[in-house]
Design brief:
The chain is built from 2 helices and 4 strands; from the N terminus they run βαββαβ. With about 90 residues, it is an alpha+beta fold. It has a single domain, classed as ORF SCO4226, nickel-binding ferredoxin-like monomer (Alpha-Beta Plaits, 2-Layer Sandwich), CATH 3.30.70. It has a 4-stranded antiparallel β-sheet. α1 crosses α2. The longest helix has 18 residues. The two termini are about 25 Å apart.
Length: about 90
């Protein structure tokens, strides 16, 4: 399945408490369980006002549906074309 990066604009999210982040992850996981095996959350990077999430999913539509059901934005969804990391130099 393809990999996607989802950009979520959420003012002040970088100041979230560990408990708030835990609750958000629980909600996201619950929605993913309902949607089935066509979507997988890999991990997220949280900055001051944005979350960048990495997902594996069958298509953008299921990512949009996940965001709608979880009550979180999906402001930009980008399909990963290539993964480049230090091992690329080998």
């Amino acid at each position: 399945m393809p990999m996607f990066v989802i950009e979520r604009e959420i003012a002040g999210v970088g100041n979230s408490t560990p408990e708030a982040l835990k609750n958000g992850a629980k909600e996201s996981n619950a929605v993913i369980r309902e949607l089935g095996p066509a979507i997988q959350w890999v991990h997220s990077y949280i900055t001051a006002d944005k979350i960048y999430c990495v997902y594996i999913a069958e298509d953008e539509n299921i990512i949009v549906e996940h965001a709608r059901c979880a009550g979180i934005p999906a402001d930009r969804i980008s399909r990963v074309a290539v993964i480049n990391d230090p091992t690329t130099a080998e």
